[in-house]
Amino acid sequence: MSNDLDAAKQGFLVESEELLTAMEDALLHLETSPDDMEAINAVFRAAHTIKGTSGIFGFDDVVSFTHVAESLLDKIRDNEISIDKKIIEALLKSGDHISDLVNEVIAKDNVLSPDFLLTSDELIVQLNSFMHTPLTEVVSAVSSESVIETLANEEVISSTNNWHISLRFGVDVLKQGMDPKSFIKYLQQIGSIISLSVLPDKIPSLEDIDPEACYLGFEIDLQSDSNKEEIESVFEFVQEDCDIRIVPPHSAISSYIELIQELPEEDELLGELLVKSQVLTHKELNNALSKQQLNSSAGDGKSIGEILVDQGVVAQEVVGAAVEKQQKVRTKKSAESRIVRVNSDKLDELINMVGELVIASASASLLANKSNHTELEEASGIVDDLVDSIRNNALSLRMVPIGETFHRFQRVVRDVSGQLEKSIELVITGAETELDKMVVEKIGDPLMHLVRNSLDHGLEIPEQRIAAGKEPQGKIHLNAYHDSGSIVIEIIDDGKGLNKKQLLTKALEKNIIEEGQVLSDDEINQLIFHPGFSTADSVSNISGRGVGMDVVKRNILSLRGSIELESEEGAGTVVRIRLPLTLAIIDGFQVGVRDDSYVVPLDMVIECVEYADIDKITGNNGRESNYFNLRGEVLPLVKLKDHFNYLPVENEQNTRANIVVVHYAGRKAGLVVDQLMGEFQTVIKPLGKLFSEIRGIGGSTILGSGDVALILDVQQLVQDAADHELKQVS
pLDDT digits over 99-117, tens only? Predict the structure, then answer.
């Protein structure tokens, strides 16, 4: 039981975070569209749902705090209070506090520290201050002629926004000791009777009157804050003998529809849904069900909704809303039944086991090929295909869209732009782009550093932008897309860009570069990633301490990624991050250098050509240079023997060398290897500190033979080749 309860609490924790995220998005939207009722309702629903579920678990502190926020939102929905930036700010803080409260009560077994309670009290005072605003009450005078409207079918309805009670007492009410006037007096205790009409149409002729019988009927307009159930309870002792019909105010119809939409999404019968939303009383439902049963016996197959509308106890619009809610819930339940939440630790364990399966499958395939047994090779091939499918499906389970990470920055941009007194718009594209969950988790902090730096250093205040001929509102653009087996994330701003002269001056002051040293634009831009480097004129709580950008680069490199920076002074800056789609298993292309095996990520391989067939380029000294001509395109060569400092071997057999043409971030290079050994699934294993200083190695893997192969860091190899080219040009 304890395990089930803990699992339920964890489920509530996940659900509450999703609701609070939706609440935050809606509040940020309301800053620009304060009249959007759908957004207001979304905020209310989030608070209402969290409060209700917290009550089930007995989280009273969460309930009491959320109730205050819900009350404020209810007044906003009823147009009693106009939402503004101050209210939105308070509600955003309340959302953060609700998140903290839920996490704390679950972690500490429903025990809160005094600090949490103090924060709750402070926010409650702030929320209540918005609700104590005096409201102007407008009371409409209603003439007696407009109160009652009699229809042809003798059904009487109210033409005002009051409750209408159509009451027909049973003939034996007086004999049972009940006084009809006492019910009228009781109604006055729960509201104000605006109009009352006595209906004498059932009174017989004088000679037929029974002095102990009751022939009275009333049509009553009642102004009251009570709900339908409470009004019906006034007539509790005479319900069996009377005909009572209670029609809600016209204005209540839209409220009932909203209430139905906000009910917890549970699969319920139509009648139960209407009772829960207080549109229908239990007695009215039971009467309608009884009539439905009688009609069914007589061959009339009317639905419960049709019967309720015919009886006049529920409006057609309300029944329609309830039916729509019922269908929506059932559709959602059907979709949810196909979704299973899995603990991420179990998922990681599955990926590790799939990795071991890939290695074992490669080993079995190697043995099958050596056996020269045709049937065994065919069976091994089938297993390989199945393992490949299992691998792809398992990896897809960990792929999540980056949009959730991007949307977190909407709140960051709003808060920081307010602190800096800047007007900033956040644009998000490519939110649906998927990558490994582990990569998403680890990229969050580096992205936060980069976005905050763009907000603080990159974008100017409105006055400066206007003086520079720009729009007063700055823009930050977050974009993501797939490119050659990698995911590219871009942080683009239209700010002032990097001041290259200032960068060089700071670099000289810190002895990062030497006087007279010539740097390319890219090398100048890369200076900001140097530890302790900052161009900020003053230190703020946003940035400017020179701590963070070097950490950003280090964290991205640890993910086998890269970071590039492009900037144009006065026009803006683009920071481009490239990351692998997954950190677990990739398709690789195995190559050999002497007796060693290396793996190139298959997505980065363009083609393979024989070294003897290429058009080699010679230098001024007549020697062969590190370039070759590939169908008119001059590309740098990286000879792995030279790069990894292989020692010369006497009497080394001349093998037919090959070139693997690879690309990364728009650059190409050729890797010179001894052997091409084909494609295979590569399980990435981390390397120890011993290999951390070796350029061009990104990891390791285990081959089917049990030998270890090193995974080439194509990004680093291509970069080294490009740097070598620049040095030769300069």
Answer: 999 998 888 888 888 888 8
